[in-house]
Amino acid sequence: MLPNQVGKQLGHPTYSLSGWLVSKFFKWHNQVLEENAVKLCNIEPNNTVLELCHGPGFGLHYASQLLTGPEGKLFGVDHSQYMHEMASKRMKEQISRGKVELYCSDLMAMPIEENTVDKVFHCNCYYFWPDMKAGASVIHRVMKPGGIMVTTLRLDSLKRTISRRALNGKIWNPEVYMDALQSCGFTDVRLEDNRDKLIHFQAIFATARK
Ligand SMILES: C[S@@+](CC[C@H](N)C(=O)[O-])C[C@H]1O[C@@H](n2cnc3c(N)ncnc32)[C@H](O)[C@@H]1O
């Protein structure tokens, strides 16, 4: 695949051979980030949780296992029809029980009510958003006061992808995203280095102040 094609598929996987290859890459490369984003959110059994840009749905799967209380609810949003259907298959049983709702939507238009979400997590995606500040602002809007947002990423592999020109023109620097979060009403915005077995990754934390 050409770098440009890889970048496009990473940001919006389509029903195609390259979309399928990218979905395999998410499974192989990103599951650890999804699992750790869920762990770092400290999800409680009756929380309302939202995963943005869920891709194939591994994070949804981990999060749903923690939402064991009667009020526990999980939302997911991804603008790729291919990823929406892949994740919907993975979460079929929980969707049929009404515990999980997935939307095929741009995050800017997600149909989630204001002040309803306790925890938000996302992995590998803020650099695909056309306007990071607008993205941070819609996240803030749906969160309850004091809600926690966690995003995980692997800066080393992100830099490798950038050097191969697969993310041309994308603003990947976590500090830019952290500034956007702060300017939209998040506090305690911080980046931590972390490790899971041999994998070194970063996590950004933010608290929604209202
Ligand atoms: C690199 S993939 C990451 C998928 C998954 N979180 C992971 O780490 O494996 C980026 C995902 O974000 C989605 N995405 C990108 N921009 C989006 C937007 N503006 N609104 C909704 N989804 C978006 C893409 O469709 C894709 O599934």
Automatic annotation (TrEMBL):
Signal peptide: none annotated. GO terms for biological process: sterol biosynthetic process. CDD domains: AdoMet_MTases (cd02440). Keywords: Transferase. Belongs to the class I-like SAM-binding methyltransferase superfamily. Erg6/SMT family. Gene3D superfamilies: Vaccinia Virus protein VP39. InterPro entries: Erg6_SMT_methyltransf, Methyltransf_25, SAM-dependent_MTases_sf. It comes from Danio rerio. One of its GO terms (cellular component) is endoplasmic reticulum. Residues 49-147 form the Methyltransferase domain. It comes from the Eukaryota. Pfam families: Methyltransf_25. This is Hypothetical LOC100005854. GO terms for molecular function: sterol 24-C-methyltransferase activity.
